[in-house]
UniProtKB/TrEMBL annotation:
<dbReference type="GO" id="GO:0005829">
    <property type="term" value="C:cytosol"/>
</dbReference>
<comment type="similarity">
    <text>Belongs to the UPF0301 (AlgH) family.</text>
</comment>
<dbReference type="Pfam" id="PF02622">
    <property type="entry name" value="DUF179"/>
</dbReference>
<protein>
    <recommendedName>
        <fullName>UPF0301 protein B5C34_07620</fullName>
    </recommendedName>
</protein>
<dbReference type="InterPro" id="IPR003774">
    <property type="entry name" value="AlgH-like"/>
</dbReference>
Length: 186
């Protein structure tokens, strides 16, 4: 049996034809991966039913002068639970530093700090997450479904949402136009 390759601080890219529409063309920032489980946030699927201001209003947080913006569909697990993926210049209660590359916080304090202008410089808000049980992600990585990528933090903050998946593949030297939606056999 091969040793698991822990992916915290890396990206997962869904392969064309993986068979799960929830992850079609998904780019996932892996925030935690160990022997027991894995957790990631989809960073290129947007929710069309709520905006930042709408979410802040639902949570009783005054957005102040903050610009309105999108809320990401972080994954199918607990889709009503909020997460903020952010730069490492902010640490609050329960903040998880992810390999020094980005951080994850899931408390209201960070939303208040963002609204007040005292939060992280770079951030995105997601509802839901992607999760795997013990050994599940390691098993899925051996099948046609996911590809791992080192990537860059620019995928999170500086790349247009609609380009993130394609550019993540290109950063690994892969032209997505050449990918087959089905796995081959030897």
């Amino acid at each position: 049996m091969t040793e698991p390759q822990f992916l915290s601080g890396q990206f997962l890219l869904s392969m064309p034809g993986m068979g799960d529409d929830r992850f079609a063309r998904a780019l996932i920032a892996v925030c935690s991966h160990d022997e027991e489980s894995a957790l990631g946030i989809v960073v290129n699927h947007l929710r069309g039913d709520v905006t930042l201001h709408g979410l802040f209003e639902q949570l009783g947080v005054d957005p102040g002068d903050m610009e309105d913006g999108p809320v990401y569909a972080g994954g199918p697990v607990e889709p009503a639970r909020g997460f903020v993926l952010h730069s490492t210049d902010y640490e609050g209660q329960g903040t998880l530093n992810v390999a020094g590359r980005w951080a994850l916080t899931a408390t209201l304090d960070i939303l208040r700090a963002i609204a007040a202008g005292t939060g992280p410089k770079k951030w995105l808000v997601a509802l839901g997450y992607t999760g795997w049980g013990e050994g599940q992600l390691d098993g899925e990585l051996t099948q046609h479904g996911w590809m791992r990528a080192e990537g860059t933090e620019a995928f999170l903050w500086d790349t247009p949402v609609e380009d993130r998946w394609r550019l993540a593949f290109e950063s690994e030297g892969i032209d997505v136009g050449l990918l087959s939606p089905s796995a081959g056999t030897a």
